[in-house]
């Protein structure tokens, strides 16, 4: 079945550091790929998405590029802020299914 | 903009009791999904409904049932609660016009604690 693998956390960075959270997937066909963020005590919020190979999703300084050749969708941000501290979930939605498959989540802590 | 509404936000029950969680999708969304997120875990898909019919089923225990009503709201009924059912339960909805590539909009979740 479809699956998503993310780098293990927690990730601790200083403010203004560069962020990369790796995400790879296994799926049949051509899934859509997503990054969701979950702040403490809150629900899941869509951060960005990409629906086909070589698409780049971007939002709030975060970027991720859909790489079909490496089945990856790594999340990057050039300069993190304390307010970016949250849990980040990589997810896919297969084109033959409705539900999302989530990765295990990566907790990010940004220190001032 | 209207979002997905879930009620209650917090619920405390004892073992073997029953619980009902409600989800009100974004207006004009016709598909509802339920997910369970245990402590420190990723959300796991339980079940989904499209136009009031069950459309997909994931890892939902037999003790749980769900339905979608004519106004598209959905209820997740949980019986014979166990300690392991303590989790955050998310509802998500998506709009009509095709299932492919549509994102799901998540509600804030209901935190269920079973004592």
Provide a descriptive summary of the structure in words.
The complex is a heterodimer of chains A (112) and B (115). Chain A has 112 residues and is mainly β. Chain A has strands spanning 3-6, 11-14, 19-21, 23-26, 32-38, 44-50, 56-59, 62-65, 75-77, 86-93, 101-102, 106-111. In chain A, the strands form three sheets. In chain A, strands 2, 5, 6, 10, 11 and 12 form a six-stranded mixed beta sheet that branches. Helix content of chain B is 0%, strand content 50%. The model of chain B has no long low-confidence stretch (mean pLDDT 91). In chain B, strands 2, 4, 5, 6, 9, 10 and 11 form a seven-stranded mixed beta sheet that branches. Chain B has a four-stranded antiparallel beta sheet with strand order 1-3-8-7, with no helix packed on it. With 115 residues, chain B is mainly β. In chain B, a hairpin with a 5-residue loop joins strand 7 and strand 8 (74-78). The chains are: A mainly beta (112), B mainly beta (115). The A-B interface holds A 32, 34, 36, 42-46, 49, 51, 89, 93, 95, 97-105 and B 31, 33, 35, 41-45, 48, 50, 55-56, 58, 90, 92, 99-101, 103-109.
């Amino acid at each position: 079945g479809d699956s998503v693998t993310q780098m293990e956390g927690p990730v601790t960075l200083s403010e203004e550091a560069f962020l990369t959270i790796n995400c790879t997937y296994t799926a049949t066909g051509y899934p859509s790929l997503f990054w969701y963020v979950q702040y403490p005590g809150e629900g899941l919020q869509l951060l960005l998405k990409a629906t086909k190979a070589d698409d780049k999703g971007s939002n709030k300084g975060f970027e991720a590029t859909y790489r079909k050749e490496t089945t990856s969708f790594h999340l990057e941000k050039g300069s993190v802020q304390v307010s970016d501290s949250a849990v980040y979930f990589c997810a896919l939605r297969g084109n033959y299914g409705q539900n999302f498959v989530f990765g295990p989540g990566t907790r990010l802590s940004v220190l001032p | 903009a209207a979002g997905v509404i879930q009620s209650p936000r917090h619920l405390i029950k004892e073992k073997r009791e029953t619980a009902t969680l409600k989800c009100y999708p974004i207006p004009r969304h016709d598909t509802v999904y339920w997910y369970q997120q245990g402590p420190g875990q990723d959300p796991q898909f339980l079940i989904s409904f499209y136009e009031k019919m069950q459309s997909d089923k994931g890892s939902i225990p037999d003790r749980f049932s769900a339905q979608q009503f004519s106004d598209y709201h959905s209820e997740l009924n949980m019986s014979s609660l166990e300690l392991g059912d303590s989790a955050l339960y998310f509802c998500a909805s998506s709009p009509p016009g095709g299932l492919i590539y549509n994102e799901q909009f998540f509600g804030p979740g209901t935190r269920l604690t079973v004592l």
